[in-house]
Amino acid sequence: MRTEDTGAAGLDLRHHGDAEVRDDGAELVDLAVNVRADTPPAWLREEIAGSLSSLAAYPDGRAARAAVAARHGLPVERVLLTAGAAEAFVLLARASKVRRPVVVHPQFTEPEAALRDAGHTVERVLLREEDGFRLDPAAVPEEADLVVIGNPTNPTSVLHPAETVERLARPGRTLVVDEAFMDAVPGERAALAGRTDVPGLVVLRSLTKTWGLAGLRIGYVLAAPEVIAELERAQPLWPVSTPALAAARACVAPRALAEAGHAAHRISADRAYLVAGLASFADRGVRVVAPAEGPFVLIRVPDAAGVRRRLRDLGYAVRRGDTFPGLGAEWVRVAVRDRATVNAFLKALSAALTPPTAPPVPPG
């Protein structure tokens, strides 16, 4: 692992997977975005539709906030509802009075982008491929007073043990753990959501990934009451819409939690199938980051830019990896999908890994 000052970094931290399927990519099979493809389910669409008759009134988030608090066994003072986890990163960046923020990379780039936009100088700790992109808490500078890490981490799909992440906690330090994909992990092992014994802990959750609600924007923050109060003061009035509040209540109900648990096991099986298929291309230079624990897989591919272009020609969009600090142009992220989709994708990947043969040059 190594640390890096971001002052001279030229990466596009605002590039996200949805850029791969906009405009001319709208008809592609989407393996670039990590939202589950078979969502939202019909019962959730009905819950959201049922809230539309209340749109004339200003949103009232009290019931949804209480439902989220109950889901994690916390008092409501430890919960803040947000317009997706992305808003939470912006609130933290604007409200935090920190001197030395550190972001552990490779990971979702929005936390660093938000910190930089708020005027902070951000230091990076870069996890290494040769270490399996696994965290060594000792690599984080002791003087860091804000540390951000994803778990499981986007894009590496690495799940850091809870006790390893806990070792980042210090009195006087804010430890931000992005658990946007934790509900895709069977049993949510390694989760810190709901913990009140870790000093400075701030956990971010998203409901948009598992439930296919990226267009609705709903997430939440779990933290000490004084942190929640500070973030709430930085929020605009009525930040979460009435339909999003209805979705939040529905998605933390017992029925939804049971369904999410079943989905996590299905994702795990589908991911294993995808990883096995990708591993079959090892003799053609494909390397899979393993073990993968999220609903996506990170792979190293020779001539990744060319492979992505050829995959697009064959009807598939995957996520480029070179906009993540700590990765380069040879990396690609692939979302986990059902086996029929994976089979078709693997066939396309086999063709994309072999560049087209140049036409013969006519004699003379």
From TrEMBL:
<keyword id="KW-0032">Aminotransferase</keyword>
<dbReference type="GO" id="GO:0008483">
    <property type="term" value="F:transaminase activity"/>
</dbReference>
<dbReference type="InterPro" id="IPR004839">
    <property type="entry name" value="Aminotransferase_I/II_large"/>
</dbReference>
<dbReference type="InterPro" id="IPR015424">
    <property type="entry name" value="PyrdxlP-dep_Trfase"/>
</dbReference>
<keyword id="KW-0663">Pyridoxal phosphate</keyword>
<comment type="similarity">
    <text>Belongs to the class-I pyridoxal-phosphate-dependent aminotransferase family.</text>
</comment>
<dbReference type="GO" id="GO:0030170">
    <property type="term" value="F:pyridoxal phosphate binding"/>
</dbReference>
<dbReference type="Pfam" id="PF00155">
    <property type="entry name" value="Aminotran_1_2"/>
</dbReference>
<feature type="domain" description="Aminotransferase class I/classII large">
    <location>
        <begin position="28"/>
        <end position="349"/>
    </location>
</feature>
<dbReference type="InterPro" id="IPR004838">
    <property type="entry name" value="NHTrfase_class1_PyrdxlP-BS"/>
</dbReference>
<dbReference type="InterPro" id="IPR015421">
    <property type="entry name" value="PyrdxlP-dep_Trfase_major"/>
</dbReference>
<protein>
    <recommendedName>
        <fullName>Aminotransferase</fullName>
        <ecNumber>2.6.1.-</ecNumber>
    </recommendedName>
</protein>
<dbReference type="InterPro" id="IPR015422">
    <property type="entry name" value="PyrdxlP-dep_Trfase_small"/>
</dbReference>
<keyword id="KW-0808">Transferase</keyword>
